[in-house]
Structure of Aldehyde dehydrogenase family protein:
Amino acid sequence: MTDTLTHFIGGEAEGGDAVGESINPSNLDDVVARYPKGTAADVDRAVKAAREAFPGWSEASPEVRSDVLDRAGTIVMQRAKELGELLSREEGKTLPEGMGEVMRAARILKYFAGEALRRHGQTLESTRPGLDVSTYREAVGVFGLITPWNFPIAIPAWKAAPALAFGNTVVMKPATPTPAIAHALVAIIHEAGAPPGVFNLIIGEGGIGSAIVDHPDVDGISFTGSQGVGALVGQGAMKRQTRVQMEMGGKNPLVVLDDADLERAVTCAIDGAFFGTGQRCTASSRIIVTEGIHDRFVEALAERARSLRVGDALDPNSQIGPAVSESQLEQNLKYVEIAKGEGGKVLTGGGPLELDKRGFYMAPTVIADTAPDQRINCEEVFGPVASTVRVKDYDEALEIANRGQFGLSAGIVTNSLKYSRDFRKRIRAGMVMVNLPTAGVDYHVPFGGTRKSSYGAREQGFAAVEFYTQTKTVYVGG
């Protein structure tokens, strides 16, 4: 079945010509949805609707906002199976991953339903006698949310839920490959009772994002995507002196030391590198292995990768789904050729797969014998491709892990308390995993990286209040 999607502006579903198509990457003959391609004029109307809705929403009792988010979370939970199927059909995650992401979105909505009641003010002693001092957290205004395709319901939820919880209104642009699942989320939030204009959705291509960033009545921008686009978003926001928050990917190291449990190390690497088709900004895309365990680890990693079942995202036997699009598959294959040209050795995978259904399938790929500064170890591939680097010892592993411009997530597999403690302290990354995959974070704790992986305030959990509110300091004299 092919859905026909609409924008949501001022609480109304607005169509236009449905000229864009969302294609199932597992089956190219399946059109998931047709959608209108929004314009700058649509963005302008959405921002005006959000601006008009802001006073009523921000001044309402926090219970009103809490109840809307809690109801939305309940509805998402109740429809987890159908939403998970839609997500997997549209994005290409396996069905267990799709349903898991849907449940994560539901939990995020419910978490921020609680946070709506707690805005972290303070009562302080003044240095001047007879004065009282208090600080308050207030809503900022209209937020523009530009969301990616790789977590097409969880990331919209973790941006929108705190924005709404703290009294802001929203204009959101979902990623072009995955508009249907974002549309479903926005429809549910309206069903849960969000007033007209509080949550607006404009579907379209890159120009829509630019129109949101450049709009003078948008008070803040939250963006997740590539470094290149992020640089443009940052420039546009700073030109208007509006607040901006950006998550821009990673080239995440997983360090495997000689004393590591081999089975645990391989399991961490397989999970981090290949699940989600490697389309996670926290994926373990470069694996740094000390020489005492190197040969055994690389052989076991390639063997396990070779055994992974690639197939239709909705097939219960599939462990790895397709790339989200033809352009993403082409990028994955291009980086394999670059790595081979620079001396890397492909141990398994490396090419597209021809299956019963036409889709963007690629075999999980392990590339060994790579050097730290080769492009495969410096640039984000965003596919089921893992490269390995042999090092002498822990100190060399740490130095190589800290190279590059990314610093989102980093992991180490070791039984040494000494090295695990040192790694946690000295690794230049926003998130550190010890004896765990680099991918996989809880919804109630801060998310973000260092260097060019992130810019601005952290996302998720208790940290979200920093970005989605502003502090007012109030003095009262007797």
